[in-house]
Input
Amino acid sequence: MKAKYKIILVTSLSLLFSINVNKIYAASNNQNYQKNFINKLKNDVISVSNKYKLYGSIMMSQAALESSWGQSQLAIKGNNYFGVKGSYKGQSVSVSTTEYNAKGQLYKTKANFKKYPDVYSSLNDNGNLLRNGSSWNPSFYSATWKENAKDYTEAAQGLVGKYATDPNYANKLIKIIDTYKLDELLDNKTSKKKYILKQILHQ
Output
């Protein structure tokens, strides 16, 4: 009987070890494709965000969130990284989407989204939208502009209820930015540690 229990124990430990290894491997893969996503969009995000005087960290975090880090069907089929509805130069793609109604309840629907020829076009169209708003209100997204938002957290709040119906949208963007330090990477912001070290070296 003891031998039988030992076999069961060893088997259980082996299974547990296998599960943990798989979790670690999966987490590593997630980090890899997220880093690859950031590296892929980095230069274009910097270029477009500077062009429209927006926070690059907001643009990157939006692209990551809206496209599931480039894995969504909308991103794959239409190079649409921001979930922008409508058509782009007559081109669109129809996909299922989840929306919030006026009561904050989720519901599923199908809608047409813009189809872009490349990633840069998607970024540029989004930057143009945030900077120039709509025909009826050019300042509709003015709360996201660098001259109006003192940092990316304020810019993120400026998107809630306007760009996105999700009441937690800003918090989701901020979490992505903080996790991957996108403000340091894309907003020309020097971290406090780096700033202090720079000051010490120049004394």
In short: The radius of gyration is 22 Å. Residues 153 and 174 are 6 Å apart (CA to CA). The domain at 42-188 is CATH 1.10.530.10 (Lysozyme). Confidence is low (pLDDT under 50) at residues 5-28, 191-203.
